[in-house]
Amino acid sequence: MEALTKILISGTGVFTPPNSISNEELVVSFNAYVQNFNKENAAQIEAGEIEALTESNAAFIKKASGIESRYVLNKEGILDPNIMAPQLRERSNDEPSNLAEMAVAASKDAMERAGKTAADIDAVLVACSNLERAYPAIAVEVQDLLGIEGFGFDMNVACSSATFGIKTAYDMLKAGGAKCVLVVDPEVCTGHLNFRDRDSHFIFGDVCTALVLETEDTCTVKGAWEILSTRLITKFSNNIRNNYGFLNRSAPEGVGQPDKLFKQEGRKVFREVVPMVAKLILAHLSDEGIEPAQLKRMWLHQANKGMNDMIGKKVLGREPSREEQPNILNEYANTSSAGSIIAFNKHSDDMTAGELGVICSFGAGYSAGNVIVQRQA
């Protein structure tokens, strides 16, 4: 394979769950839980042994995050003050897993847009924050359900999984190990969210995205996106963490504790991640001889509107417009690795040949991945 062969994103797909929860609905459930907790523990609260819980409100959520609603696989369990978790039935080994089912739906969408059939794809990468099981790999299950030959494997870099997946596929295609790769990001974020934590109960939603990456000689659709360059960075931090894992049963005293769900130090994350990501984007653009003013669009990780606005301002040197930096948080909430891909999927069709953009995701690790793309004719 020639070194100058272009690598293209020729199709994207999104699976959106049918159920949506508004901030108002979520707050009703959370506040009912708070009221029940404070009532049941009134004596201890009065004695100063434990602190009373504080109610939430929809205005606080929107102001803090830009989120107004989120899509979920299961609504009833989340909104039940006695459960406050998605209720997804145990599936038999002969049924598709939840993640694989989502992945197939998003993949079919992406493959159709790319004009690809199962016979055209050489590899499947499932990249997401939380895998439904340790093995067999979800990617191999998706590969089987779609009827794809070749190989598949799973990878996890939390909220950066999608861009790390793109980088992995890009390098694979450049090296000649494949000519067409499917990257899928199934995110059931509600499964690891603590809906009893006022600071984070509103953050996440569920979704799945997919991308088809291929070499230019196999691309048959117009308006594909050339990947001009990719860059990754990681820096260890405990400020976003989830301690759930297969060794939990070895320390039974920790089973069911809050640290086995999503936990973050939000203010620290904001202070540390914003400059890290802005620096990554600016350095990457500079090394490729691209001025920030040349960017038509930035599809950033959809975690927090304030974070995105600040990153955009640091990169552009001014406030980004809604067109330059589209936001899907109000409808989808934070969907971990899938967020930047949803934004790319929904806010890229209007761009014309030659225009530039960056797909950037960032999160736990810390980790961040940046992909510079250019629209093709």
Provide structural commentary:
- This protein has a domain at 225-375: Thiolase/Chalcone synthase (Peroxisomal Thiolase, Chain A, domain 1, 3-Layer(aba) Sandwich).
- 32% of the residues lie in helices and 22% in strands.
- The protein contains eleven helices and 13 strands.
- It has helices at residues 23-40, 42-46, 58-65, 76-79, 98-114, 138-146, 161-175, 266-287, 305-316, 329-332, 339-346, and strands at residues 7-15, 19-22, 69-72, 123-127, 151-155, 180-188, 206-215, 225-234, 240-241, 263-264, 295-300, 356-363, 367-375.
- The strands form three sheets. A nine-stranded mixed β-sheet has the order 5-4-6-7-1-8-13-12-11, with helices on both faces. A two-stranded antiparallel sheet has the order 2-3.
- The longest helix is centred in the C-terminal third of the chain and has 22 residues, at 266-287.
Structure keywords:
377 residues; alpha+beta; Peroxisomal Thiolase, Chain A, domain 1; two-stranded antiparallel sheet; 13 strands; 22% strand
CATH topology of the domain at 225-375: Peroxisomal Thiolase, Chain A, domain 1
CATH architectural arrangement of the domain at 225-375 = 3-Layer(aba) Sandwich
What's the main sheet like?
9 strands, mixed
What overall geometry do the principal axes of the alpha carbons give? Answer: globular
Mean model confidence by pLDDT? 96
Helix content: 25-40%
Strand content: 15-25%
Compressed to H and E, one letter per element, the order equals EEHHHEHHEHEHEEEEEHEHHHEE
User: What do we call the CATH homologous superfamily of the domain at 225-375?
Assistant: Thiolase/Chalcone synthase
What's the end-to-end separation, in Å? 23 Å
Cross-sheet strand order for the largest sheet: 5-4-6-7-1-8-13-12-11
What is the radius of gyration computed over CA atoms, rounded to a whole number of angstroms?
21 Å
CATH class of the domain at 225-375: Alpha Beta
Number of helices: 11
Q: Find the count of extended strands (DSSP E, 2+ residues).
A: 13
